[in-house]
Prior knowledge:
Layout: H1 27-56, H2 61-86, H3 91-115, H4 120-148, H5 154-183, H6 185-203, H7 220-232, H8 235-267, H9 270-291, H10 299-305, H11 312-318, H12 323-351, H13 357-369, H14 372-386, H15 388-406, H16 410-414, H17 422-432
Amino acid sequence: MGGDSRPVTAAPAPTPRRPRRPDWAGRNYTLLTAAAVATGLGGNGALIAAAFAVLDAGGDSGDVGLVAASRTLPLVLFLLIGGAISDRVPRHHVMVAANALSCVSQAAFAVLVLTGEPRIWQMMLLTALGGTGQAFFGPAAEGMLMSTVSGEQAGRAFAVFRMAMQGASLGGAALGGALVAAVGPGWVLAVDAAAFAVAGGLRSFLDVSHIAPRAPGGGMLADLRDGWREFIGRPWLWSIVVAFSIANAVVGAADAVYGPLVARDSLGGAGPWGLALAAFGAGTVAGALLMTRWKPRRLLLAGMLGIFPLALPSAALAVPVPIGVLFAVMFVAGATVEIFGVSWMTAIHQEIPEEKLSRISAYDWFGSIALMPLAAAAAGPTESAFGRTAALWGCAALVTVVTGAVLCVPEVRNLRRHTGSVPEEKEAKEEKGAKPEPAANGSADAERSVGGLG
């Protein structure tokens, strides 16, 4: 009688919640990662396609080296300018313009290969245009990525970014080698052009409102001098860059010139070589996955120890080993070099002021690739003078020697990962009246604000 006679309705079912993204995986980070995946899929196949386009046109090892060098030379010439510009204007504008130039140059290269018999000078010119775009893109992209992430999770963010990028490289290399063998290099170059168009479109939506406006500077030369002082004042930074100037040159020559030739003569051609590069890519994915969990306290010590196996692929090609052994060697080298890659990005992120990231990145890139055009151009004459086997053993020996030399630098062995954010550490020191420790001993720059790259 006194009861409530209203019908009882069932409570609405709870709306399923979408998985929450990590704090460091914001909109910019997602766009940057998606764009890197697109260019990774296209770019690695294009590297194989360019080498075999030269060989299909009747070129030899010297011609392959010249085309490879024509891409790297503009990088050396324009990188520092690209870094200074990227620290002055919105970085995403620089990135989109560079992607547009690379798209046009690769499309023209594809048309040239598909419609006729390309000449070496034509391939060199178009490859140089792509290298020019990369000279402006690289510093802007790394500065943009590093300004997108912050705090203790920066290392994990870089590892996930690199894992996605390297996974795309893995697929791109395997698919590129198979497509070169199946339909020829021209179509692979066309795919790369389309990938640049997609990536440029994604990067046009990046938001740079979180980056403080740049104060007027004293001009391009003043900006470059400021970046140089920042670079040369950190022994851990310039010593590693000098070492990689040599290591990247010889490894680049082995991969771009000797690798395709060994594949053609002993491994079965473009397909197996593409799979070997894909094995390296698979190793980098595994290494990046490891670095999402592992946070080595001594960043650069762990990273440089991972560079020694980078000598193994050149040694394997020198023998040459069976294709299965080469796959294993490439996988191990990829995994260990990725330990360095994540550690290096984390060290740059925690030690360098945000407003100087692109300039430091430019000096890093400049030093790291300065000798690559010379090494690529000299690969053919070196093979003629000493033989391919001796040249490859020389590559392996140089990587080992320069890596050991860098480990003799105390700052490389002792630079440590921060356990908290830089602003928190700075505030704690100020409350105690302590002065910040010098960056060379692994501490943060006192004026650095993390959170404000890849």
